[in-house]
Amino acid sequence: MESYLWIIPFSPLIGAAINGALAILYSHKEKGPREEIISFIGCAAPLASFVIALMIFIRMIGMDEADRILEQTLFPWIWSGALNIEVAFFVDALSMVMVLVVTCVGTIIHFYSIGYMAKDRGFARYFSYLNLFMFAMLTLVMGKNLPLLFVGWEGVGLCSYLLIGFWYSDIYKAAAGKKAFIVNRIGDFAFLLGIFVVYVATLEHGAGTLDFPALSGLVAAHPEAFRGVATAAGILLFIGACGKSAQIPLYVWLPDAMAGPTPVSALIHAATMVTAGVYMIARLSFLYALSPLAMGVVATVGALTALYAATIGICQRDIKKVLAYSTISQLGYMFMAVGVGAFSAGIFHLMTHAFFKACLFLGAGSVIHALRGEQDMFNMGGLSKYMKLTALTFLIASFAIAGVPPLAGFFSKDEILWSTFTSSLSPGWLPMVLWVVTFIAAGITAFYVFRAVFLTFYGKKRLTAEAEAHVHESPSVMTVPLILLAIGSITAGFLGVPQVLGGSNAFHHFLSPAVGAAEHVTHAVQGAGDSVQAIGAAAHAAKEAAAGGVQLSSYTGEVLSEAGGGSHGGSHGLEILLMVLSVLIGIAGILVAQAMYIRNPTLPESISRRARGLYNLVYGKYFVDEAYRETLVKPGYFLSEKVFFKVIDVWIIDGIVNGFGVMARGFGTVLRLLQTGVVRTYALFILLGILYLIYRMVG
Amino acid sequence: MEAVAFYIIAAIAVFGALLMITRRNPLAGAFSLVVSLIALAGIYAMLRAELIFILQILVYAGAIMVLVIFTIMLLNLREEELEEPPAGKIKTLIILAAVAFGCYGIIKVLSGAPDEVPRVPENFGSVEKVGELMLTSYLYPFEIISVVLLVAIVGVVLLAKKVI
Amino acid sequence: MITLDHYLYLSAILFFIGVFGVLFRRNLIVILMSIELMLNAVNLSFIAFSRYTASMDGHVFAFFVMAVAAAEAGIGLAILVMLFRNRRTVQADDLTLMRD
Question: Is this model's pTM higher than 0.90 or not?
Fold first, then answer.
């Protein structure tokens, strides 16, 4: 079964190659290739990956918990001195979850795209890009070493750029793609630096390696030595994650990325690619766990993003923008989870979020499709009469994101909140503050999502005449994926029912071989406080806990499952209380939305008039884009035009290039004198050469 | 006795060579060269190189030089075509210095070569012995040389044809 | 008593006379003959070494040199004839096509 691993990423690559070739072959013809063929190839490729992933998952379940690791080495890639990097795939519990989410949601969205993209001129190109994205994403989550992860990281960035600017003839959409690419580049630069830092550190402590298993073993062997490196590398890598996963301050590209086709927004900018940062931190959990500072930064940024993006979501008019800010906010939750050391909770939320957010996006796509491209929610309303299935699935997903039990979002969000509340981050007040921030954000989330629900599907109909003529339920190729994702939004949560509610938290248990040791280390290190002795003891504990690398001894596993059950310092009663509180704030948010948009539709108008300044600030997205333009983009333009172009390029670079030409001509003029064209002169030179040789032999 | 013979023959060879490069008329030069080559054949005989002695007379002094002389007569150069402008002084100096240095270098390199004349068997350098060597150890070079000569023949025929 | 050095000096003298001929004379026929002289000087070295090391390999090499010299003379003279037919000159300095 291990030898089939490579098929998972390469199957979509083959699909991308075939569809890409078709797209190129037909690029000059009037009609594109037949959509049936393209959609068959485009959907079969990820479906094959999904089936194989499922088979591997079943096989993995049957294995002993400690050896749930599958590896396949394809070929050596970079083989130079101390740096040996292979193209190798590696699947442990963490990768397995990611592979399943990516292939499952990906396949569903591929099917949905058949309906959404029907009759588009770039049908083949679209599926080619989408398959290429699947390849890159699967490389990202299955890569055995950091460089391979980086290849996937850049690959998904490329596909994201290609798909955001898919309708490139629209200059605003092309610009949105460019923005995403450039903002990501900032993060990727830091990410690359982070990789270098890790590599240099491993060189100093034994063998230079970037393989995850070897790295984890090395870090476990020298926990003290890697503390400083963990902070530096952790923060650098996190900046990269900020770019890819749209966290403050690099989130600005994600709302603009909604210019792409809606299934792309669902797949890339909600369910999979943007979660790469969370995956990366969970993958390097053994490193992050050693640095309370890096973890604190991650958690704080995550919490702030969660609240910040949620507030922007309140005032957006564009349905996709609402969902975009919602995605940023939910990603913030995930980062907070991994930041407080609850890696499995973060990944759990990643998974449930993939289902309900993809469902929301596809539902929005269904609405947009039905209304011929209308995206402004104030031009919708009352659509539930026309699109019953879409409305129902959208509603289910909305309840899930609002955290209403027993839907998926409730379990995952609650686990994050609880882990945050009981975490041992220093200073001591930080966990409480983070909890309050995200608790408020949870209420706002419920509010803005249901604002979208009410504005779109209920209340008075405000359709434009053109849209009204076209409104219809989407074809079944689009509604069936919606139903599948809605079922996922309902059921995914039951994989991780906490023990306090009588569940076994199977998800947490499944992930513990991969990240459990790191969770333990986090608590040991963070709980140690500042005293030198305590840090030493914590490091020792870390060493013990991580001694088995990713493979956890059964003893530690027990300790962890207890810890997961709520023995971090909080009691069962408190956990239940917090749970009830968060459900209540979610329901409160829903009710407020209902009051404002159904019962009294004039209320929002009057509120916004009364608080004009605040409303404008939030509606203008806090003018962050404008601030960036003034402080970064304009100086950048100035620098590139006036300094780099006018001075460095024209004078220095061109000067050097021209200088080479002038120099070559000068030498040529001098050397030309030697070329008399008379053979006897050359004979003389030969003679002189021979004499020199004789001189060397004699002398 | 042997030394006397060597010096006489060597003097003839050098003298013929000097005449060859100093005669303005190439025909005179060619005949001087023939003298020099025959003297060299004598040297070969002293060195007991029987085959090479014969070849020197037949091929060099005979065939090749006849070819050269025929060519000279064929071209039938007029007196004014033989005029040569003198070489520049700097060039002459360079060449003279180079030759002097070259001779010095060769002497330096060669000093220490064996002085003893080794005893060799009666048939050393005979046609039979050298031929045997050529057709055993040096078979491949021998065959290649045949091909070179063949190519040369074809080439000459092609070049000398009036119309190409 | 004639030693190997004697033969080699003779060879060197003849060789440099050939070099002189190539470098100073402009008549292509003389240049060709000078080259023949240089080849003969080399042959002399071969034969002398052969005698003083009691091995006949040098004779074989001298034979090869002669064969090559014959080929060279044939080709060289053919080129010369063609040249004279086309350019009416056998002066090396008149042939500067490589420069022009």
Answer: no
Torsion region of A373: left, alpha or beta (phi above 0 gives left; psi -120 to 50 gives alpha)? left
Instruction: Give domain limits for chain B.
Output: 2-125, 126-164
Q: Does the C4-95 domain belong in CATH 1.10.287.3510?
A: yes
**CA separation for the pair A545, A223 (Å, rounded):** 11
3-class state of residue A118 by DSSP: coil
Determine which of A319-323, A378-382, B97-101 has the lowest per-residue pLDDT on average.
B97-101
Is the CB of residue C83 less than 8 Å away from at least one CB of chain A? no
Asked if C22 lies within 8 A of A675 by C-beta distance, the reply is: no
Q: What is the largest CA-CA distance in chain A?
A: 110
Q: Do B102 and A694 touch (CB under 8 A)?
A: yes
Select from A251, A233, A234, A230 the least CA-distant residue to A242.
Answer: A251
Contact A205, A220 (CB under 8 A): no
For chain C, give every domain's residue range: 4-95
Helical axes A408-421 vs A343-370, angle rounded to 10°: 140
The interface residues of chain C toward chain B in range 58-97, judged by CB-CB distance below 8 A, are: 59-60, 62-64, 66-75, 77-82, 84, 89-91, 93
C39-84 tens-digit pLDDT: 999 999 999 988 888 888 999 999 999 999 999 999 999 988 888 8
Residue of A680, A684, A690 to mutate when probing chain C, most C C-beta within 10 A: A680
Tell me which long-range contacts A538-547 makes (C-beta under 8 A, separation of at least 24). Answer: A539/A223, A539/A224, A539/A227, A539/A290, A542/A220, A542/A223, A542/A289, A542/A290, A543/A220, A543/A221, A543/A223, A545/A517, A545/A520, A545/A521, A546/A216, A546/A219, A546/A220, A546/A223, A546/A286, A546/A517, A546/A518, A546/A521, A547/A220
On whether the CB atoms of residues A312 and A621 are closer than 8 A, the answer is: yes
Is A693's Cβ below 8 Å from some Cβ in B? no
Closest residue in A to B102 (Cα–Cα): A691
Q: Which chains touch A (3 or more CB pairs under 8 A)?
A: B, C
pLDDT band per the 50, 70, 90 thresholds, residue A104: very high
Q: Does any CB of chain C come closer than 8 Å to the CB of residue A683?
A: yes
B102, C16 Cβ separation under 8 angstroms: yes
How many angstroms separate the CA atoms of A257 and A176, rounded? 6
CATH 3.40.630.30 given to domain B2-125 = no
**Each residue's pLDDT tens digit, A260-316:** 899 999 998 888 899 999 999 999 988 888 888 899 999 999 999 999 999 998 888
Q: Do C48 and B85 touch (CB under 8 A)?
A: no
For residues A84 and A139, the answer to whether their CB atoms sit within 8 Å is no
Burial A153-186 (b: 16+ CB within 10 A, else e): bbbbbbbbbbbbbbbeeeeebbebbebbbebbeb
C100 touching chain A per CB within 8 A: yes
Q: What are A149-178's pLDDT values in tens digits?
A: 999 999 999 999 999 999 988 899 999 999
Q: Judge whether C69 and B146 are in contact, CB under 8 Å.
A: no
ipTM, two decimals: 0.89
Question: A563-622: per-residue pLDDT in tens?
Answer: 444 444 557 888 888 888 889 998 999 988 888 888 887 877 788 788 887 778 877 778
Q: Which residue of C has its CA nearest to B96?
A: C20
- The residue of chain B with its CA nearest to that of C70 is B64
- Interface partners of chain B (CB pairs < 8 Å, 3 or more) are A, C
- How many C-beta atoms surround the C-beta of residue A198 within 10 A? 27
